[in-house]
Amino acid sequence: GEDVEQSLFLSVREGDSSVINCTYTDSSSTYLYWYKQEPGAGLQLLTYIFSNMDMKQDQRLTVLLNKKDKHLSLRIADTQTGDSAIYFCAESYTGTASKLTFGTGTRLQVTL
Amino acid sequence: GAVVSQHPSWVICKSGTSVKIECRSLDFQATTMFWYRQFPKQSLMLMATSNEGSKATYEQGVEKDKFLINHASLTLSTLTVTSAHPEDSSFYICSARDIGTSGAGEQYFGPGTRLTVT
After folding, report:
1. How far is the first Cα of chain B from the last one, in angstroms, to the nearest whole number?
2. In the list A7, B75, B81, B98, which could disulfide-bond B28, CB 3.0-4.6 Å?
3. Average pLDDT, integer, range A49-76
4. What's phi and psi for A61, nearest 5 deg?
């Protein structure tokens, strides 16, 4: 079955880099996603990576994928207070079906 | 672009009543919409996949007679919680997939509806 795990909490100082980790079990995953959820709100798609890629960078965000270890990470450079939120990784095993399995979520707290 | 709205954003109802939640894709068409449920400090749990013009596909353990889904157009899906009970209190989030997107299958999420059953 599908199982996606994340650490529950991460605290970083403003200006530092944040690295949020995710492990998954379904080796047939096609796409892996990172979503951001602010309190009381829906989810915002931050970025995604195709399973045959190792890395993707988009402005302050860098996604690393180690398919052998089934490990996904999201690095946020120059973390700001506005980055404080819950971050979910998600996987889908076929892009056209779009059925997502979400991780447990990591709460990122940015301190001054 | 790719905006999804939900209505209402917040509702309180009495036990035994029914509540309808709407999910709309405002600037794109969605043949597929998804309904999720999220308990406090927990992840999203997929309840069902809503397909335009056909019956919804429910996940294991989700009662289809209790959570009625209708996807009558390419921009609207509704979730009706029938005979609501306090344990149905939760945050309900919908998402929609733009039929014009690439194979990445990006889902765009609504802002959520907080349901409280008293």
Report:
1. 37
2. B98
3. 93
4. -105, 135
| Structure token pair of residue B32 | 């597929």
Number of residues that this document lists for chain A: 112
Cis-peptide, bond into residue B8, ω within 30° of zero:
yes
3-state SS assignment for residue A38: coil
Residue B39: is its pLDDT beyond 90?
no
Q: Which residue of B has its CA nearest to A44?
A: B109
Length of chain B: 118
Kindly tell me if the per-residue pLDDT of A30 is higher than 50.
yes
Return d(Cα A27, Cα A20) in angstroms, integer: 20
Instruction: For residue B104, give the amino acid letter.
Output: A
Buried b (16+ CB within 10 A) or exposed e, A74-86: bbbeebeeebbbb
Instruction: Compare CB distances from B103 to A42, A96, A102 and report the shortest one's residue.
Output: A96
Contact state of A92 with B49 under an 8 Å Cβ cutoff:
no
Residues 19-38 of B with CB under 8 A from A: 32, 34
Q: Is residue B72 pLDDT above 90, yes or no? A: no
Which letter does DSSP use for residue B9 in this model? S
Alpha carbon separation from B61 to A1, A4, A19, A75 (Å, rounded): 16, 20, 35, 36
> Which residue from B60, B64, B39 is spatially nearest to B50, judged by alpha carbons?
B64
All residues of chain A having their beta carbon less than 8 Å from the beta carbon of residue B97 are 98
Nearest-Cα residue of chain A relative to residue B42? A104
